[in-house]
Amino acid sequence: MRNTPMRKPLVAALLCLPLLAVAAPAAQAADSRPEAAPVSALQVPVRTVAWDLTSTNSNTLRARYSDFIRSLRNTGTMVGGSGSDAVWETSRGNEVIAVNATYTWQENGQDVRRTVTLYLTANNLYLRGFSTGNAGNVVQFSQVGEQEPFDLGHALGRNAIVLPYSGRYGGNHSLEHGDTQSRQLWITPNGVWGNMNALWEFARDGGDANAIRNHLVAAIALTSESARFRNIEGTVRQALGGGTSLTAQEAAEENDWGRGSRWIYQERNGSRPTPTDIGGATVTTYAQATHYIAMLRSDQR
């Protein structure tokens, strides 16, 4: 979902090497039909993480989701704890994480495998955009009004279709409008497959950018927010066994990642910070804070 009072460019994960002296292709309008786009030189390093959604067995889906979130957190560094209590921090580098989500879809009466690639910046886990299987055009959020703008097409050296809204929560020209209730998503396996396919089809064919807003909100919750927040990961894993929704607490947490990360760093350093809120919960101890936050935003150290 971008995440500190929004996903500050969720746009959902989400990392500073010298840039290559190569001009990136120009961006296209969001309402145009994507054309085949040649890949040129990368401007930043890219790390690939796989998420296998092809099984219809709930136990397998859950286990693979746990593996995926662990791999996403491992793009950073573990800083404390172990097992279910482990805490990571995001990378301090300039890389992009490419999440290859593979799922099965019915096409002309046949089951076919499709892969949609979700791109996160590794230092903050903001979702920056997506494409069909790490190829062709990329679809990226508008940078208008962004405090931390990021040109995904330029970074990947590829043509970009620019959405008419940013990846932030709330505000003008943002991904969503309204309060956090719109982020109390109902999550099911069929819904997750539908979310991924809606993005895949938009990247391939174009269409109404407003029609994919909710799918992007879901993609952020399933990736960036679940990597950041341990309890959101648990809710999503449970939902893959049938269906459940994010709670009001979990939806509210998404705006408190930066503050919560800063509090945990201070507590680890022995500064004894005053109690703080994560979502609707007041935390006074390290154990309470890490009950919610599993991955720290490294620039809050």
Low-confidence stretches: 1-29, 31-38, 177-181
Q: What is the annotated CATH architecture of the domain at 27-227?
A: 3-Layer(aba) Sandwich
Mean pLDDT over the full residue set: 85
- How far apart the termini lie comes to 22 Å
What does this structure look like?
- The chain is an alpha/beta fold and 301 residues long.
- The chain has a domain at 27-227: Ricin (A subunit), domain 1, CATH 3.40.420.10.
- 30% of the residues lie in helices and 23% in strands.
- The model is unreliable at 1-29, 31-38 and 177-181 (pLDDT under 50).
Keywords:
301 residues, alpha/beta, Ricin (A subunit), domain 1, seven-stranded mixed β-sheet, three-stranded mixed β-sheet
Short description:
The chain is α/β, with parallel strands linked by helices and 301 residues long. The protein is 30% helix and 23% strand. α1 crosses α4 (213-228) and α3 packs across α4.
